[in-house]
Amino acid sequence: MVMGNVSGERSCRCIFRNHRTFFMSIVLLIYTFLFFPSGRGMPTAAAQEGPGPQRDAVRVFLDIDDYQEYIKLEVPFVDYVRDRNEAQVHILMTRQETGSGGREYTLTFIGQQNFAGRDDTLKCVSRQLDPEEVIRRNIVRTMKMGLVRYVSKTPLAADISIDYRQKRDPAAVVDKWDYWVFNIESEGQLSGEESSREFQIDGSISADRVTPFWKMSFGFDSEYNREEYDTDTRTISSLTRSQEFEGLVVKSLGEHWSAGCYGSALASIYTNTKFSWDIAPALEYNVFPYSESTRREFRFLYRIDYTNIEYDEETIFGETHENLFDENLSGTFELKEPWGSVSATLEGSHYFHDFSKNRLRFHTNVNLRLYEGFSLNIHSNLERIHDQLSLPREGATEEEILLHQKQLATQYDYFVEIGVRYTFGSIYSNVVNPRFGN
Known about the structure:
Oligomer: single chain
Strand order of the largest sheet: 6-7-8-9-10-11-12-13-14-15-16-17
Distance between the termini: 67 Å
Low-confidence stretches: 1-8, 37-51
Helix content: 10-25%
Structural class: alpha+beta
Strand content: over 45%
Mean pLDDT: 83
Radius of gyration: 32 Å
Shape: globular
Number of helices: 5
Order of helices and strands: HHEHEEEEHEEEEEEEEEEEHE
């Protein structure tokens, strides 16, 4: 009996060992099939890392917010690095709106290391109705043209070919709209839950005309918002409504000067304005040429306003109607460089009938790449406020305060946001993997 039990135990161990070996073999086979479908066994270290740097390829840093993955797929003959200091070419893309509602993209190629001093600037323009595929394809085409001068200095030039598609000269374009662009928008929103409901509808219409010598922009906006909240005893309702017209006409006076005029009309429950209109001639000087506006600007704008205003309710100063004159001076500095971008605006204004009724505003937006992989972002808006002439004498009820229905008295307003980011690891970023989303 003992010998029989021992023999049975050995047999069971043998069967268990065989089953375990068989099971491990199946697991290994599935693993190999899923991760190494080529069937060539375990990959080398290079294969495990995925596509790495290409020998003799130009190292490129993309200082571009959009289309990075698309660019890496469509422009594979360079190596992309995530640190600008490791790059031989820094590509900086800026953009601004065109008169027709499209965008002009400026690609600045900045040579570094062995390409130091070899800089270039290329542009491409999109129309307002261009689909995203057309826009990003034009950006890639422009980028390829800019990279040729760098790649041509490397052994990879032997693998580059250039095609030329000849086109006939287009006939003179006759614009039946005379450069005017119109937009009509409308949006409605309905939301709610058991104890609250909200209905909102907005509408706008605009007309713009932009040429090298004139800039004209006119727009009308209307907003209606109603909210209801059920409590144990009653229903609290909130209503805000506003209509606003804005207009601007600007004449170019060379590469540094511009003259123009603002105009507007407003009706708003929130600001206690039954109806107001104003007109404001203005003069602007830009220290840098306007042609460099996508990279740097230092603008000074001076304007004098006349405002005719009728209030919904009597103000804290006992007024129901006023004619006001004020002046406004602002300075704006904007700069975008490989190390980051800086934007700052200092603006001051006051009424002529009482210089103590004034306002001072300082706005900044800073993005700095301090060193490899580390960046600092600061966004702030600070205001000193002493010009709230439209505040109603009766003030605001507790409900109006909580529901933000009326403007409240204040001597200041501020907003500050600070963020840091640190990235480390491989300097190369050639690989694009869209699985499970981005």
